[in-house]
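ARCHIVE CARD
Drawer: 12
Card no.: 0347
Subject: one protein chain, sequence and derived structure
Cross-reference: see card 0346
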Amino acid sequence: MNVSNLCVLTVTVICMVLAWSEPSKACGSCTCSNGVVMSCPNIVQISLRSSGLTNLSGSAFQNNKIVTNIDLYGNQLVHLPAGLFKATTKLQTLNLRYNLLVDLPDGLFKATTELQTLDLDDNPLVHLPAELFNATTKLENLYLSRVQLDYLPAGLFDAITRIKVMYFWGNKFDHLHAGLFKATTELESLYFVRNQLVDLPDGLFKATTKLETLDLKENQLVHLPVGLFNATTKLRKL
């Protein structure tokens, strides 16, 4: 789908939302220009689920400055422009599940400082930049299951100190950095089901004192360090 069709589709969605929530403003406030959705000051949610999208212009959301929810589930996106979300500074929820993303550009989430939930499940991602989440300091829910990753760079989660839930089901991790979760002190649920982990480093969970659920089934673990769970005194499910 090209950007012009995307614009028309987005405006259609916007009109439907406005018609239901604010009939007096429906459709009249949204227009397209060169494949870009123009000023839509009342829009807080955009859904483009299963719309056949194969690419997005870097300016696709440049005028959606107060949008809080963008749903791009089930499309065919392979790459995203680095500046795609530079104007969506109020964004709280972003769903990119079931696309064909192979990488994410450094700086993609630089402006999304209010982001709380990010779903990247079911994409063939093979690499994440170490600074990817540096600006998303309010992130609470992160979904990275079945994304083909075999490595999480050191420092990747250092800025997301409010994170509560992390899913890493069905990847290819065989080891994790000892300091990977050193900043995730609010973490409550962590899932590494169906990976290839053979061991866990001493001190991995030293900072996760609020962890309640840890799921490590269907790995290849042969050894656990003595004292691995000494700090996880609130752990209820293992």
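Annotation on reverse: The chain is about 10% helix and 10% strand. The radius of gyration is 20 Å.
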